[in-house]
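User: quick one, fold this
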Amino acid sequence: MNTIIYIYFKNRNRLFRFFQYIYLIIICMFYILYFYILYLLLFIFIIIVALCAYIKIQFRFWSEQPVFHVYDFRYYLFPPGIINFELPEKNRWTNFKNIETIKYSDNVDLKLKQFTHFIRQNYLQNGENQFNPTKENIGAYFSGHNSSSFFSYYYDDEILIDSKTSEQILNKKMIGAMTSRPIRISINKTKDAFFSAYYVDYLCVDKSKRKQNIAPQLIQTHHYNQRLLNKNIVVSLFKREGEVTGIVPLCIYKTYCFDMTPWAKPPALLPYVALVEVGKTNIHHLLEFFKENNERKFDICIMTEIGNIMELIKTHNIFVYMITTGGEVLCAYFFRDSCVSLKKGTDCLCCFASINCCKNDGLFAHGYKVALWKIHERMTRFKYAVIENISDNDVIVNNLLKKSRPIIVNPAAYFFYNFAYHTFNPKKVLVIN
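Assistant:
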């Protein structure tokens, strides 16, 4: 009996010690996991703080603006759309002494000529790689809208000496400028949003005056004046190449540039399809094509007014072609005279959008080549084909990359100002402006 009792208590003690060991192991694992999670959270917190500090120091101006910053985590879960409904307030970036904002319709011819000259002298001037728009190239983008477009000019006082009288003359010299023109935006078949915005363009500072906070002052003052002059539009859209300054983009994509010199004229399209250039007599077919397919194919559509599209077509700033069969539009291509030359006497023709409702991708890509060549034959100065890999242009880019190597590949992005929303796949983004 004593032996049985002894064995019982001995086994019970062993079992008790076993469970003690298990308990200690569990406690140790719990503390290890606890401290691991704690240190992981601390590490993530330090990374976030460092990222915020970097953005606020490196991009001080943009860190103070109503945009979707990469550290605004609540916007990832609950994007608010419009960030600030109230009119903007004056701050350290607003400069009403040097900057004036006027409607495009109030631009006198002399001022528009000065603006064009300023852009030609300071916007993308790098050896033979130059941006050389004419007054007509620029003016067409601000015509045919239902809302006002705006120009902002930054002036500095300079003293000129009259060569004959030696008298000092005070002159206002343009050292910065930016513009905005109205666009219409539809998100997710208008279910999430349908609103007007301003597209910002020609943001430029004199080459000798850069890194002096002139661009931030232009943006802030322009936005302030624009909101006061047109209270119905509160959102702006920027396009940027390269760095996106700590802002979550609307979409990000690549732009490809191909040298057309080695290319041969493509064979004609098959007889059952026709390539048609869009003009005032047939633009209604394009509009019907838009209505039937844009919101079905794309998650976000950004469009200028039809009157502006017609003005751009009429002035040969853009070229629009459709492939049709039996009276039905299958696809559309949108080309822009970029006014950019890589070498003297040679210009870049940019395909900035396309809509493909054709089941045959080979036909769609071939249609692009035929349309491109038609424009090239009419205007032989176009020696470089530029393609923005957005909307349905990925089909064209992939086709060209099979046999051609791009000479330039640049990243680009669109981003909202005073509006926060998720980033879109560039294949689901249509921008025509």
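User: anything notable?
Assistant: The domain at 255-432 is CATH 3.40.630.30 (Aminopeptidase).
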